[in-house]
Design a protein that fits this description.
Structural class: alpha+beta
Order of helices and strands: HHHEHEEHEEHEE
Largest sheet: 5 strands, mixed
Number of strands: 7
Distance between the termini: 100 Å
Helix content: 55-70%
Strand content: 5-15%
Strand order of the largest sheet: 2-4-5-7-6
Shape: elongated
Length: about 300
């Protein structure tokens, strides 16, 4: 009889323990489910979830992985927002830049349609219309290059190229303007220096820097192009004898469409330096400027040499 009572008591205790454990784990599961739903709801609402990290527990391990997933998704969302803002900024800038020449061209065409316009005025308005059309063409070409760079659509075909060929590609395009201003253009590029780069696009960067130098160098001034190589970089230096660039603006001049007050008297769109820097950076190099007004400016292209195969 005593044995039966003892067995019954043990069975009752076991049953109570099982019930308590069931209640305990059910409560834990409910709490875990509540926390999981809260975290998922916060993630869906783009709020920052409160992750409860408890080491060496199932809850903690799952929360660690949920936190990693949140950080990955949040990073992609932030990148998407930045890309969208960049695109909106680009569209806005393009619209602003195109507006003026398009309006001018429309005005000149309206004036040309007047039947009472004499021959001299007609020729004048035709020349002005042509100039505005050329400005629009130049602007659109520059904007296409810029947008292709910003969206990563350009594939650089890097090869081992004599540096003198890269420089020559930029020089040929600025020669007429330099001759009109009677500038002394000097080139010092020793034989045997090679660059591992995309010749077409690197020459485009050199041209933009040379065009900038010619534009802001007064008549009868000088522009000097020199090249060198050290242990880490192939270097192209473009020096002019213009007024120079104040230190407060040296970090700004590479911005898209940036033009200082001192530069607004010259024709330009504020794209050239932006393009040059992006072209060089996309090839693993960097572009810098040194200037102490009124003693001109030096733009320095640095292209890495570790990819050269000599």
């Amino acid at each position: 009889m005593i044995l039966l009572i003892t067995i019954s008591a043990a069975a009752l205790i076991s049953a109570v323990i099982i019930i308590c454990l069931n209640i305990h784990y059910r409560r834990k599961i409910n709490l875990f489910s509540h926390d999981l739903c809260r975290i998922l709801d916060d993630m869906a609402a783009e709020n920052t979830p409160d992750f409860t990290i408890t080491e060496d527990t199932l809850d903690g391990k799952i929360n660690v992985r949920l936190k990693r997933l949140y950080e990955i998704l949040n990073g992609k969302t932030e990148q998407s927002k930045r890309d969208k803002e960049k695109l909106q900024s680009l569209v806005s800038d393009i619209s602003h830049q195109v507006k003026a020449p398009a309006a001018n061209l429309k005005l000149y065409l309206e004036l040309l349609s007047r039947p009472d316009l004499d021959g001299e005025k007609r020729r004048e308005f035709l020349q002005l219309s042509t100039a505005q059309a050329e400005k629009l063409e130049f602007l659109m070409n520059a904007l296409v290059k810029m947008s292709r760079l910003e969206t990563g659509l350009i594939s650089f075909e890097k090869k081992k190229i004599p540096l003198v060929d890269v420089i020559a590609g930029g020089l040929t395009q600025i020669s007429p303007a330099a001759e009109r201003k009677k500038l002394d253009v000097q080139v010092n590029c020793p034989d045997g220096i090679f660059a591992f780069c995309d010749q077409k696009w690197t020459s485009e960067a050199v041209f933009n820097l040379l065009d900038n130098a010619v534009k802001y160098t007064p008549s009868s001034g000088s522009v000097t192009v020199s090249a060198d190589r050290n242990e880490f970089y192939v270097q192209i230096r473009i020096k002019d004898s213009g007024e120079g660039i104040p230190e407060s603006e040296q970090a700004k001049i590479f911005g898209r469409f940036y033009r200082s007050e001192a530069a607004k008297a010259q024709e330009g769109l504020g794209i050239g330096l932006f393009l040059a820097r992006n072209i060089i950076q996309e090839q693993g190099g960097f572009l810098s400027v040194r200037s102490k007004p009124p003693h001109g400016a030096v733009f320095i292209i640095n292209l890495p040499v570790e990819s050269l195969k000599e």
